[in-house]
Amino acid sequence: xRNTLISHAAFGCATALLASSATYLALAGWxxxxxxxxxxxxxxxxxxxxxxxxxxxxxxxxxxLGRVVTVRRTERDPGNGSGPHRHPGSHxxxxxxxxxxxxxxxxGPLQKLGPGETFYEPPGALHAVSRNGSSAQAVKYLxxxxxxxxxxxxxxx
Length: 157
Prior knowledge:
Elements: H1 2-28, E1 42-44, E2 51-61, E3 67-76, E4 81-82, E5 85-86, E6 90-98, E7 101-105, E8 111-113, E9 118-121, E10 126-132, E11 139-147, E12 155-156
Antiparallel strand pairs: 1-2, 2-3, 3-11, 4-10, 5-10, 5-12, 6-9, 6-11, 7-8, 7-10
């Protein structure tokens, strides 16, 4: 029981620190040493046209049940979205940098988020809507995931 409490406390602290750091970096701008153009930033192939993802940070948290923390910048072209899906082993936190992002999690309301606004998806929740809310402007947002590497990253509905 004590180890579980310590793991949960460490997980909570790590999540708060990561979210605070991502917010600071998004608002202040990336330092040159962390620029996405550096070798450690990895662009991910788009699952569909009109989406670009750049992995900015990834590490395994060995002291927190082996969870993997990933920070990605995602850009969606105007009108672009993905089909309903779930992230079975991931806590997913989003932070809108530019544009309008529309998101609906489980039976919650459709949210239209702008710069500085956030969303959260608990593990296994249905990400029913994930799309750019504009037909004229790209949307850019950070995705921060804390994942169980033994579970699939994404499962389409």
